[in-house]
Amino acid sequence: MSLEEKFPRGLWVRLIVYVAVGHLFAAFIYLLFTLGAQNQ
Length: 40
Hints:
- This protein is about 90% helix and about 0% strand.
- The chain is rod-shaped, with a radius of gyration of 17 Å.
- It starts with a helix and ends with a helix.
């Protein structure tokens, strides 16, 4: 039984989108904290 049979294609697309958005969101928050710490 291969991975493609266990998980439908739409689930993989959704998973990749969630991971990408999560990393972008985390990077944005990290950038805000870094710039905020430098301004003080």
